[in-house]
Amino acid sequence: MPHLHTNGHSVPAGQIRVLYVGDDLALIRFLRGTFREPAYHVVSCPDRGSAEMFIESDIRYQLFIFDHEMRHRAAFDLVRLVRSLKHRKRLLAIVVGGQLESSLIQFTHAAGGDEYVEKANGFSSIRKVVEQFLLNS
Q: Which of 70, 79, 101, 133 is the most buried (most CB within 10 A)?
């Protein structure tokens, strides 16, 4: 079941919506603590099936973050799904993981992802990349 982080109110039109797909609770806490409401709305989704429903829906998102360490290692497949959908193909999609290897960077780009980012140093690299992408979008 997806973990919606909401207070029951509708999402304001100018709010940046981020979908994190994975089950890293420390990363979820970091994302929600760093990218706070009302400017941001972080939705977390721990499984592939729910993620596919969110991605295929008409819910407005500006950024997708896929955890390479999620169950079934579906991050690259989900990036490909984002790129295959007309209403999603130009949105930002990053993959995060515990290792920084050139093959993971290559897989991310081959799938259509914008960036592969290592989960290290208190997630500081993730923060930097997300802020950079959102400023340039």
A: 79
